[in-house]
Amino acid sequence: MTESTTPIPDPAEELLFLTRGVTPTEAASVSAVLRGLLREETDNLRRAPEGSQSAWQVSQRAIRPAVRAGQGQWRGFSA
């Protein structure tokens, strides 16, 4: 079974230049730059955030240390 892929339309191909007298070289340059910017932006949207933690992860605390029984171990202050 083969999978068929449909090509994703390129937004840069739908450019309409309002400036008169744009040469094919200038149009190709502008579309190449815009295509690169679009690719970079979509790659940034797909990438997972680096080193960021959710609010739930930030609110978590470490596990309490073990409670030790013995003389003076339960007091959090000096008498």
Summarize the helix and strand pattern as letters: HH
Judged by helices, strands and strand pairing, the structural class is: mainly alpha
**What ranges have pLDDT less than 50 throughout 5 or more consecutive residues?**
none
Strand content: under 5%
- Rg is 30 Å
Number of DSSP strands? 0
**Global outline:** rod-shaped
The helix tally amounts to 2
Mean pLDDT: 77
Q: Gist?
A:
By secondary structure, the chain is an all-alpha fold. It is built from 2 helices and no strands.
Structural commentary:
It is a single chain. The protein has 79 residues and is mainly alpha-helical. It has a domain at 23-47. Helix content is 35%, strand content 0%. The chain has helices at 24-46, 55-59. It is rod-shaped. The mean pLDDT is 77.
